[in-house]
Design a protein that fits this description.
Structural class: alpha/beta
Bound molecules: guanosine-5'-diphosphate, magnesium ion
Shape: flat
CATH superfamily of the largest domain: P-loop containing nucleotide triphosphate hydrolases
Radius of gyration: 24 Å
CATH topology of the largest domain: Rossmann fold
Helix content: 25-40%
Number of strands: 12
Number of domains: 2
Low-confidence stretches: none
């Protein structure tokens, strides 16, 4: 059962040099990676895994008072190396294989855009201009996708000439047809995430890990005072948000709670953006969670959206999928309204469901199973 394979979701933080990638990485991960004002695009990656804040897990944990509380987790990768330089682009220098892989390796991207002005922090394109920066980084990603498409089309042309005798002939033909349609779209600078694909076509292209196909959260890194710029980013699987990066990093790194409160009041911050931005970027991934509860552990489990009960059982343990009998399913709201599992049962809110039952985000599950030894 392929769906039993579990893998941590990964979000890549990208942007021009000095836009604040590492600063925001530190805000999100509570890290202390060195931030620096330098120019030039040296390839470098910082990674860290963080729990995904979820008030529902907090509430369940309060209800059960378990030994252990486990949140969903996500990995962030702070990826330095993109230059956004149109020079490099027209010279066709392109991304190094290493950098391209480091970006391709993510399930979604967090694209940091510099809004803050600071003379002591050089800007790689000479001036602060968020709209231009978004376009130049996007075109760097598109060019990388385009070169992948062109290379593949060339190879396919060669192999298709050999005719039907080649075992992959039909698949190659289909792939050639899709890539030929996709190419002009990318040439016009349109991200692949805007290109409509059938599920079958999507599957055929998945292996390419196109950079502009990935869901993206644009994050405007404001100075201490700046207002978010009024920039539309009308694309599929895309959102925009804002943060006062350095200010939040400085506050987050204060050890003393009182100092933190004082600074937050001074800058009119009611809460740090950490939780909000982790949620916003996590939501891009299109995952959902269900919960298991008990005195040992309250835990969030990650599965694909609209996962059937059997897949949820398998996410917990393969034995639970193999010996699956039924799942007791309670919605989060019903459990909270009832106040306890026993009360929810008495109110008929705990439903017994079969393996094909579609589980919803936030459902609480108990799997009844039986494994023959
Ligand atoms: N004034 C100001 N400087 C910032 C802000 N965010 C980051 N910086 C500074 O910009 C420089 C580059 O930041 P860094 O996070 O290393 O950028 P990266 O190259 O994208 O990883 C550092 O000196 C940061 O302190 C901000 O909101 N305001
Ligand atoms: Mg950095």
């Amino acid at each position: 059962m392929g769906f039993l394979l579990r893998r941590l979701m990964r979000i890549g933080i990208i942007g021009l040099p000095n836009c604040g990638k590492t600063t925001i990485f530190n805000v999100l991960t509570g890290g202390k990676a060195p931030t620096a004002a330098y120019t030039g695009g040296t390839f470098q990656v910082n990674t860290a895994v963080v729990p995904v804040p979820d008030p529902r897990v907090d509430a369940l944990s309060q209800m059960y008072n378990p030994q252990k509380t486990t949140y969903a987790r996500v990995e962030y990768a702070d990826i330095a190396g993109l230059s956004g330089s149109t020079d490099d682009q027209t010279k066709g220098v392109g991304l190094s294989g290493e950098l391209m892989n480091a970006i391709a390796n993510n399930d979604a991207l967090l694209h940091v855009v510099r809004v803050f002005e600071d003379e002591t922090v050089p800007h790689s394109l000479g001036s602060v201009n968020p709209a231009r920066d978004i376009a130049s980084l996007d075109s760097e990603l598109s060019l990388s996708d385009l070169s992948k498409i062109e290379n593949r089309l060339e190879r396919l042309e060669v192999s298709l000439k050999k005719g039907k005798a080649i075992p992959t002939f039909e698949d190659d033909q289909k792939e050639y047809e899709i890539l030929s349609r996709l190419k002009p779209h990318v040439e016009q600078g349109q991200p692949i995430r805007d290109f409509e694909l059938t599920p079958d076509e999507e599957k055929r292209l998945r292996g390419f890990q196109f950079l502009s196909a990935k869901p993206v959260l644009i994050i405007f890194n404001l100075g201490d005072e700046a207002e978010p710029p009024n920039i539309d980013y009308p694309h599929q699987k895309s959102k925009t948000t804002a943060i006062r990066g350095r200010l939040e990093m400085d506050i987050a790194q204060l050890e003393d709670e009182d100092d933190r409160t004082m600074f937050m009041e001074e800058y009119n911050l009611t809460e740090l953006s950490t939780a909000r931005i982790i949620r916003e970027s996590y939501d891009l991934l299109g995952r959902m969670v269900f919960f298991t509860t008990g005195e040992d552990e309250v835990r969030a489990w990650e599965v694909t959206q609209n996962a059937p009960a059997i897949e949820c059982a398998g996410a917990i343990h393969s034995d639970l999928a193999r010996g699956f009998i039924r799942a007791e399913v309670t919605s989060y709201d019903d459990l909270m309204a009832a106040g306890s599992n026993a009360a929810a049962k008495a109110a008929g809110k705990v439903r017994l469901e079969g393996k094909d039952h579609i589980v919803h985000d936030g459902d609480i599950i108990v799997v009844r199973f039986n494994v023959q030894k």
